[in-house]
Amino acid sequence: MYDMNRVENAVSQTDIKIAARGVQVYYGDKHALKDVDVDILDKTVTAFIGPSGCGKSTFLRCINRMNDTIPIARVEGKIALDGEDIYDRRVDPVQLRAKIGMVFQKPNPFPKSIYDNVAYGPRIHGLSRNRAELDEIVEKALRGAALWNEVKDRLQEPGTGLSGGQQQRLCIARAVATAPEVLLMDEPCSALDPIATGQVEELIDQLREQFSVVIVTHSMQQAARVSQKTAFFHLGNLVEYGETDDIFTKPQDSRTEAYISGRIG
Amino acid sequence: MTDMPMSNPVSGATKGTLMQPDARTRRRNAAEKRFRIYGATAIGIAVLALVVLLFTIFRDGSGAFRQTYLAIPVELNAQVLDPKGNRDPGEMSKVLTLGYGKVLDAAVEATVARENIQIEGLTEAEIKGLISKDASAQVRSRVLADPELVGQTIEVDVLANGRVDGYFKGRVTLASAERDNNTSPQQLMLADELRDRGLMVTRFNWHFLSNPDASDQRPEAAGVGVAILGSLYMMLVVLFLAVPIGVAASIYLEEFAPKNRWTDVIEVNISNLAAVPSIVFGILGLAAFINFAGLPQSAPIVGGLVLTLMTLPTIIISTRAALKAVPPSIRDAALGVGASKMQSVFHHVLPLAMPGILTGTIIGLAQALGETAPLLLIGMVAFVKNFPASPPEGLFDPASALPVQIYNWTQRSDPAFIERASGAIIVLLIFLFCMNLLAIYLRRKFERRW
């Protein structure tokens, strides 16, 4: 289980969960992300918006070092989680990803039972001592993802048999089950219909009480609905970062204004 | 309907009725129709070829599974078979098949005399020649196994001569016997008489599957026993070497290896190896395993090693294709919950790739099972009469292999061996068919949606 004391200490000292300084990302020759500085607050939903190819997903994948899996990607700069640089040589990305959960654009449940999908993370991290504890973690995670009532009678059925929205909530449950400190969501609703999107958005609002949520979205309405902080990316630059209300009502930068009014993107 | 002039929005297209296709549509439809006919013809030709192939093989080869036997009482003369009279198997083994031949000759002649068969011009040699030259070895091994039989009269089913057997299967006729030095119409008439009396019967021949090869003179005794065992041993070697090496190599190359010039070179060379003619692997095996490493000739271990080299590229290519087909989202999902690279591969990617890996492996094994050319070069074409011992020692004993045995038999002059060769082809085809069935079954069983 993750260390509650440390999180609480961190919060009491400062609300900053993740601090990024001078982050540069190169894909081969392509300079995908240029000198990004940003502070992500704890127990807050932060939305990354911007047109396609602006670097918002790239930055998201830097936070849990998923870019490590792309051979040509190179990351420079510092990203600190609770003051510890996650790109330090001593940091094991596998351990890091247990603390920073991720939900992907397309629902990608494992082709296993619903139960095994959620139990996989706790199992590999040894979060439970016995079956009863594991059952408890799975139930808690599924409740946390607002899926428990729909699947409690068919936990042994394949996760791939659920509807798209249910699958995405299953993926959220899977990420929540490892008790992360930050949850990264890469356009989690882009493959979902409006009703499922509404459910997931409601869920995001609840998850904020437990940890920091970072969501990449194409939909400005969604960013406005779910987030407290918004960052606008454009052509690899972080153009503007601030309170969501401010970004959408009185943007400081002309590019932000152009984007939210639909003139670029 | 009145023909109203209408402005046409698409320039060049002419206004027409939908009830009649225009020239362009007609041409396209005709092209499509032609293509369908080509396709159906191609499939028809393929099916016809397959039917003809199977028909000829079964027509020629089914005879190998039936064999003619002569049931006669044999008096095991103690004076001939155990001159010292002490029933010691060691002493008795000094009496060779020649001695048993005499005993059998007497038994056949006695049977013909007892049944009172009179045929004009039937010579003594033709009566003796009724049974297989292998019959004496048959009786000898039975007596050596049980020395107490000496002195008694036992009922034995001895193999009939290949020509007599061929006569009952329609391969030999009275007319062809006229011109044949190895048989005569009189001998065949005698065989007819014996059959009418129920002494000579043609029945299912399990010995074809269990007997070793036999010499040119006795096709009736030849079987595929040693060849099946040799092929089985080689498949064991391939299974235990090619599958782990191939699958491990593919997993490493596909999932772990850095993508750089070296892995590109390796990848290209694996593809090239898959296209290398199999006989080249035979030369490699001869040079590396027999001449350099000093492994014995004709041994299944060498055959297995050569076939392993040959099968590896097939297994690696199909395994990599199966791994590539697993959606990357599954890998991301596993890494996203904090699984290590190895956990993501072994917990998620490998189970999903399993049906493809198994199919590729079995297809590779089936290919190896039917491979002939490299085995010729490492001496597996030798005439092997003794069964290899059980593994692991048996892997170093000389053995044959099914496809080589087929090749070997087609080289022999006696037409009875054509029947044997076709019979062996049927055995080989049945094995291949079973392996493919297994591949399909495993694919169905492990296939999962994602």
Describe the structure.
The complex is a heterodimer of chains A (265) and B (450). Chain A is built from eleven helices and ten strands. In chain A, the strands form two sheets. In chain A, strands 6-7-8-3-9-10 form a six-stranded mixed sheet, sandwiched between helices. Chain A has a four-stranded antiparallel sheet with strand order 2-1-4-5, covered by helices on one side. In chain A, 45% of the residues are buried. The model of chain A is unreliable at 1-13 (pLDDT under 50). Chain A has helices at residues 4-13, 56-63, 93-99, 114-125, 131-144, 148-151, 164-177, 194-207, 220-226, 244-249, 254-260, and strands at 16-27, 30-41, 45-49, 73-81, 84-85, 100-103, 182-186, 212-216, 229-234, 237-243. Chain A has a single domain (4-260), classed as 3-Layer(aba) Sandwich (Rossmann fold). In chain A, strand 1 and strand 2 (30-41) form a beta hairpin. Chain B has 450 residues and is mostly helical. In chain B, helix 11 (225-256) runs parallel beside helix 14 and helix 11 packs antiparallel against helix 16. Chain A binds chain B through residues 64, 66, 69, 71, 94-99, 101-104, 106, 108-111, 120-121, 124-125, 158, 160, 171, 174-175, 177-178, and chain B through 258-259, 327, 329-340, 343, 347-348, 352, 448-450. Chain B: GO terms for molecular function: phosphate transmembrane transporter activity.
Summarize the structure.
By secondary structure, chain A is an alpha/beta fold.
Order of helices and strands of chain A: HEEEHEEHEHHHHEHEHEEHH
How would you describe the shape of chain A? globular
CATH architecture title of chain A: 3-Layer(aba) Sandwich
Mean of pLDDT of chain A = 88
Q: Pairing-aware structural class of the strands and helices of chain B?
A: mainly alpha
Please, what is the oligomeric state? Answer: heterodimer
Strand content of chain A: 25-35%
